[in-house]
Write a structure and sequence with these properties.
heterodimer; A: alpha+beta; 17 strands; globular; B: mainly alpha
Chain lengths: ~290, ~220
């Protein structure tokens, strides 16, 4: 199994510290979900992992070799970024077919037949300029390039942004099919967590420019709970755990708990429910929290 | 040879040939325009050839510079996002510009031979060299001002406007052609060496910046 490793990654934009000493380890052959709030540094992290942007400090390696300017490593990766309909000179007039032709020229394992199939599936007009495409069509191009690249490590940044529900379902199906067939590694950054959660074998949560959680999704959710009941009892039952997002209604209280390991013996007077990845993320991002 | 370097070089070579075709097209367009507007005039053909050749020469000087100003923000960024290495992008751009200059020199020579203009042989060296240095300078400006792209456009528009006006005027007066035609071989070689050194210096300045290039 190969490993893409980022060590002590720091990225500053002027005085703004976007990534603060991030350590990350991506094992190949898995589907990763990268979750974080807007501006937390997801795109920056992904672009540094693929050497598209330089880090202020830190190192990224693939199987022990530095990724930066390394043909052997770069040939194994595809980071399909969100296309911009505008450039600093105005509308992006590059035609879709030119984008695809460039992708075909650059990705070593490019599958043209598969690309054509996906173009039909997402109903893309290749003769159109990128600047004339809708948000959903731009996302579709990102997906087409990522999937047809057949790169061993494929990274998609916000691939479903702007896609309608039918196209989103098609995308999830394509990822599962491709993963089952090839075992490629996918790293998918998304804000539509609820829909994509079942895809993710591992999840990385970025918070305040740092990796808050990097864990197997099932294991993570197995130690996350929604506890509700009378406020004093809930407080007593959760006093040894990390508690997020307390909500109080009269004498009732609801909290989200993230324990260090699965808990089987909560106070029987409280109600214990499982938490979805989206709700856990939401709770973690809310302002109020109590450390154990 | 299917290496990343080869793929990057191929991309920039294709771009170079596309520019050559566009430049020839520009010259032809002006030639046809000259024919069209000069209908009925005695020197219709001569005027059209003058117009077409001026368009061709200006295109050779400015076309790669225009590309150079948006290249780092558009095409370099695009290929970088598809896994190209910065070092290959750097050499790819040089190859693109040199290829364009060589093709331009050949075109000018052929054009000069066909219509029997001896001065064009001299221009076949001067004009593409000028275009080469202009494109390197514009690329440097574009990379340095990558984050304030519109300022780069203004700078290049001013330079191009000045160059265009100067070239147009000197062609009209025939002074530039006369100067180059009467230049001795020694001075010609010195100018050539200065051009190569200037290009190398600018490329050295570009190298430092391109190694920090980011995808937009």
């Amino acid at each position: 199994m190969s490993k893409l490793v980022g060590k002590s990654i720091v990225k500053n934009y002027g005085k703004d510290k976007v990534l603060k000493n991030i350590d990350i380890e991506i094992e190949t052959g898995k589907i990763y979900g990268l979750i974080g709030r807007n501006g937390v540094g997801k795109t920056t992290l992904l672009s540094i992992l693929t050497a598209q942007n330089p880090a202020t400090s830190g190192e990224v390696t693939l199987d022990g070799e530095p990724v930066w300017e390394n043909e052997k490593c770069l040939d194994r990766m595809c980071y399909s970024r969100e296309l911009s309909p505008v450039t600093i000179f105005g509308t992006n007039n590059i035609k879709v077919k030119e984008y695809l032709r460039t992708a075909k020229a650059f990705y070593k394992n490019w599958d043209q037949e598969y690309a054509e199939e996906l173009i039909k599936l997402f109903n893309i007009n290749k003769k159109k300029a990128v600047g004339k495409l809708s948000k959903g069509q731009l996302s579709a191009i990102t997906i087409i390039i990522a999937l047809a690249s057949k790169a061993e490590i494929t990274i998609l940044d916000e691939p479903v942004a702007g896609l309608d529900v039918v196209a989103r379902e098609q995308f999830y199906k394509l990822i599962i099919e491709e993963y089952a067939e090839t075992g490629r590694t996918f790293i998918i950054s998304t804000h539509i967590i609820e829909e994509a959660a079942s895809l993710f074998e591992k999840v990385i949560i970025l918070e305040d420019g740092q990796v808050a959680i990097e864990e197997n999704t099932e294991d993570l959710l197995a130690r996350a709970y929604r506890i509700s009941g009378q406020d004093t009892i809930v407080d007593e039952a959760t006093k040894d755990y990390k508690v997020f997002h307390p909500e109080v209604l009269g004498h009732n209280k609801v909290v989200t708990v993230l324990a260090d390991e699965p808990v089987s013996n909560f106070d029987c007077r409280v109600q214990v429910e499982p938490v979805s990845l989206q709700n856990l993320f939401f709770a973690m991002c809310s302002e109020e929290r109590k450390e154990a | 040879m299917d290496t990343l370097k080869a793929r990057t070089i191929k991309f920039y070579l294709i771009k170079s040939f596309q520019l050559v075709v566009i430049t020839i097209g520009l010259g032809l367009l002006l030639f046809v325009e000259g024919l069209f507007f000069g209908i009925g005039e005695a020197d219709q053909m001569i005027e059209s050839i003058n117009l077409g050749s001026t368009g061709l020469l200006i295109g050779i000087m400015l076309m790669p510079a225009m590309y150079a100003i948006y290249g780092p923000n558009l095409y370099d960024s695009l290929v970088l996002s598809m896994g190209a290495r910065r070092i290959d992008i750097f050499w790819g751009n040089i190859l693109k510009e040199v290829t364009f200059s060589v093709c331009s020199a050949i075109i000018i020579c052929i054009f000069g031979a066909v219509i029997d203009l001896p001065n064009f042989t001299t221009l076949s060296l001067i004009v593409p060299s000028f275009g080469l240095i202009m494109s390197a300078l514009c690329r440097l400006v574009a990379i340095k001002f990558k984050n304030v792209g519109k300022l780069a456009i203004v700078v290049v528009a001013l330079i191009s406007g000045f160059v265009g006006a100067t070239v147009g005027y000197t062609f009209e007066q025939n002074t530039l052609v006369d100067v180059f035609s009467n230049m001795n071989v020694g001075l010609f070689v010195v100018l050539g060496i200065i051009g190569v050194v200037a290009y190398a210096i600018v490329e050295r300045l570009i190298f430092g910046s391109i190694m920090k290039l980011s995808v937009n």
